[in-house]
Amino acid sequence: MHSMTSEAFQRLTMHAAVLEEDGFGPKVYLLEDGSFLKLFRRKRFFSSEALRPYARRFAENATVLRGLLIPVPEIKGVYRMADPLRTAVHYVGLPGNTMRASMREADEAGRERLVRRFGQLLAHLHDAGIYFRSLHLGNVIVLPNEELGLIDFADMQTYRKSLSISKRKRNLRHVQRYEEDREWIFETYLATLQESYREATNTPDFQMTL
Known about the structure:
Elements: E1 2-4, H1 6-13, E2 17-22, E3 25-30, E4 36-40, H2 48-51, H3 54-67, E5 74-82, E6 85-92, E7 97-98, H4 99-105, H5 108-127, E8 130-132, E9 140-142, E10 148-150, E11 156-158, H6 165-175, H7 179-188, H8 190-200
Parallel strand pairs: 1-5
Antiparallel strand pairs: 2-3, 3-4, 4-6, 5-6, 7-9, 8-11, 9-10
Helix pairs in contact: 5-8
Organism: Stutzerimonas stutzeri
InterPro entries: Aminoglycoside_PTrfase (IPR002575), Kinase-like_dom_sf (IPR011009)
Domain Aminoglycoside phosphotransferase: 22-128
């Protein structure tokens, strides 16, 4: 992790567009060259962010996912800043649209195809011991070739063995947090999700009951 001065931060973001912000300020910048700068702040004084900053987790998790042949953003740098007091990751995004946007635009056959790929991706993650707490259709990118990639995975956890049945079920509940996602994945196309997951997983007896 490298240090970034206030002057360097100002130069980098001078002509950038703010894509996401909260009451504490900007969270994601679209930089002039088309790359992104994502900022993380420590929410509590005693926080895991102090020991293992989220920017570093983001970069490390990208390496893990890339090792599983899952498309992820290309990491350009990881930084610690004093003004503003943040850590940051600089990356090049994936081409394509979010799966949520793609589902809205697709016809019936296209939606089934996307849900099938999502079930395969979910099984791949679970079998590899990946617990992606923030997984939802806004964090899944549909590439131009319809392969699925992942973004915004700083809070991902990696286990040494495949996820247990209870962790798999808990992860499925997280995916349902957005009503639109839940209606598509767990209602309209649930049978497709179940079939594709079962065909791809090393735990075929897993029952996707929620």
